[in-house]
């Protein structure tokens, strides 16, 4: 979700660590709670400059107090009997594989790399109002690669047509390149609710797989 916003607690993102505390992916809160309920994961909670671990039962108990004293510090999921805080980070108890080292080439990551900005006029648009443009058109041998695909608004896409930017008298606001890390991470880390992820994502070789 763009800029880390959540419409509800279940829409929030959760960072997943393997058993050795290495970041491996981002999942939605629904998936995170499913793993916790089945005792396949535990919550890793950032508290006063340190991290604490909780199984799901303990996390529910902690949530009772936090909902009473720190309701604005968390996103919440309500049940019949209580409110449960959405964890920011969970750790898989039995999974020890290493994180992915490559960024997937897909529409989601291209929009995230370009931060939903048209790469010709520079304006920001909702995802539904953007398309993907081949800088060098396919009719001229342009490939579907990180270096040749950019976000473009409808007006700029029509103006450019089946031409190169130079032929259309247009200029890219930045050169398209393949990201070294998942571009979605920069969106999430810019939001206060996901600051606790930073320690696990500081190493340059970490690229996490998205949900």
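Q: What amino acid sequence fits the structure above?
A:
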């Amino acid at each position: 979700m763009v800029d880390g916003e959540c419409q509800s607690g279940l829409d929030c993102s959760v960072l997943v660590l393997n058993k050795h505390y290495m970041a491996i992916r981002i999942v939605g809160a629904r998936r995170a709670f499913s793993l916790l309920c089945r005792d396949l994961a535990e919550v890793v909670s950032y508290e006063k400059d340190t991290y604490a671990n909780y199984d799901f039962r303990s996390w529910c108990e902690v949530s009772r107090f936090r909902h009473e004293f720190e309701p604005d510090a968390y996103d919440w999921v309500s049940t019949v009997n209580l409110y449960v805080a959405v964890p920011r980070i969970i750790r898989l108890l039995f999974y020890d594989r290493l994180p992915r080292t490559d960024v997937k080439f897909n529409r989601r990551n291209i929009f995230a790399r370009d931060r939903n900005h048209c790469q010709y006029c520079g304006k920001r648009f909702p995802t539904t109002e953007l398309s993907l443009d081949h800088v060098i058109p396919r009719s001229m041998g342009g490939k579907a690669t990180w270096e040749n695909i950019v976000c473009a608004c409808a007006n700029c896409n029509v103006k450019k047509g089946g031409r190169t930017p130079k032929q259309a008298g247009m200029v890219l606001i930045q050169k398209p390149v393949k990201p070294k890390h998942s571009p979605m991470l920069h969106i999430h880390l810019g939001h206060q609710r996901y600051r606790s992820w930073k320690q696990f994502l500081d190493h340059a070789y970490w690229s996490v797989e998205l949900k």
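Q: And what stands out in the fold?
A: DSSP finds seven helices and nine strands in the chain.
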